[in-house]
Design goal:
By secondary structure, this protein is mainly alpha-helical. It has helices at residues 6-16, 21-28, 32-39, 48-58, 62-66, 82-89, 110-126, 129-149, 153-172, 176-192, 196-212, 216-230, 239-258, 262-279, 291-302, 310-317, 328-344, 348-361, 363-366, 370-382, 388-397; strands at residues 282-284, 287-289.
């Protein structure tokens, strides 16, 4: 479906499923006229929640429906890259009975390898995906060798984090199916580390992967259940306990909102904010947790579900101090949400300014974001006169021109 429009992809997938336009409209709970206009290329896009509903009705991932790029723009060093990452996650040599002991790789120094895992985590949160994809395959292979020869709890904990990075990078790059076995291995390594908090972060990662696969009910259920298991007591819980608990609540809130469980989502985020007030800012287990992390998520959930609450999203954004967001990629994701809310409340110029600022700071990351592309498509469709900066951004994001 190269160079095809969203409407072309909807039509092709609908016909493959042997559905009429009316049947697809009923399944997705959208107006049949929307489908007709998209398939006839009289409309080039629709609101992101409409696209999510159509993707679920057509039994495909949103990334496929909108034609999201699934590769990094730069070629990595030999031995690295997304295909190498897939092969490292789905490692044939790690299967029992495949290779003899003579074929196993030598392990690097454990301390040096653990330090490299920390550096890779920094690359992920900085949005440097091309550099990370070139490092992760070797990092995973070395990690398995280190765990085989030096199976300490610290090594297993770091191996769990490495698989967490692999799952997150694969998902960001549009390959959540690769991420699932990575999360399985993350959880197995966390168990070997005898670390319930590492297991909790594994479930948080799993919830996000399930969310990106469109499995919203499961995404909410696994995160909520694990949060209940790890809920800290009221007497002197550690900051790490509060952070992992809070991250699980955040993970559960987004799929709840996607399922139109708005009250449930806000209740989860209120509990997460309470935990953040108690913990203070925390950076551990490959993630971060603070009051501002919860408040940015309130903006996100306001835009989820069948009924967008763009006004509410902007209201929530007034409580976010951008300078307090510690991770560059998190800051970028939050501002893409703000841009969508700006556009939907009639502030197209503000939305474009926000997106251009994000692109300037995160040019590699933004090309992989379905929400950013969907917002730009909507803006193109409604432009009243030729907007050169908007069209330039659309071209760089791979958004098809309006016919």
């Amino acid at each position: 479906m190269t160079n095809s429009t969203i409407g072309d992809r909807i039509k092709s997938l609908r016909e493959f499923r042997d559905l009429s336009q009316e049947e697809l409209a009923a399944r997705a709970d959208v107006h049949v006229d929307t489908i007709r206009k998209l398939e006839q290329n009289r409309r080039q896009s629709a609101r992101i929640n409409t696209l999510r509903a159509l993707a679920r009705a057509l039994d495909v991932q949103l990334e496929r429906l909108v034609g999201q790029a699934t590769v990094t723009q730069e070629l990595s060093d030999p031995g690295g890259g997304l295909i190498a990452l897939r092969d490292a996650i789905q490692d044939v040599s790690a299967l029992p009975g495949v290779l003899s002991d003579d074929d196993l790789e030598d392990a690097p120094d454990p301390a040096a390898w653990i330090s490299t895992v920390g550096e890779a985590t920094g690359l992920y949160w900085a949005g440097e995906y091309a550099g990370l994809s070139s490092r992760l395959p070797l990092l995973l292979r070395d990690g398995r060798a280190v765990a085989r020869e030096t199976p300490t709890e610290q090594v297993w904990r770091s191996l769990a984090l490495t698989y967490q990075l692999a799952a997150c990078l694969a998902t960001q790059a549009g390959h959540p199916d690769w991420a699932f076995p990575a999360v399985e291995k993350q959880l197995a390594a966390a168990q070997r580390a005898s670390d319930p908090l590492a297991e909790g972060m594994g479930v948080s990662t799993l919830s996000w992967v399930l969310l990106r696969q469109g499995r919203w009910e499961q995404a909410q259920a696994v995160a909520e259940k694990k949060a209940d298991m790890l809920e800290p007591g009221f007497r002197r819980p550690s900051a790490d306990q509060l952070a992992v608990y809070g991250n699980l609540l955040i993970a559960a809130a987004t799929p709840a909102a996607r399922r139109d469980r708005w009250d449930d989502a806000l209740e989860l985020l209120t509990a997460a904010e309470d935990a953040a007030e108690r913990s203070g800012p925390v950076r551990s287990y490959g993630s971060a947790f603070s009051v501002v992390d919860v408040r940015t998520q309130k903006v996100n959930v306001a835009l989820a579900g069948s009924e967008n609450r763009a006004d509410k999203a902007l209201e929530f954004s007034s409580g976010v101090n951008l300078a307090d967001i510690s991770r560059p990629v998190h800051s970028a994701a939050y501002r893409v949400d703000v841009a969508q809310a700006q556009y939907q409340t009639g502030d197209s110029e503000g939305a474009l300014t926000t997106l251009l600022e994000v692109e300037e700071e995160q040019p590699e990351w933004i090309r992989l974001q379905a929400l950013a592309a969907a917002t730009v498509r909507e803006m193109l469709e409604t432009e009243r006169r030729r907007n050169t900066p908007l069209r330039g951004l659309a071209a760089r994001l791979g958004v098809e021109p309006v016919l």
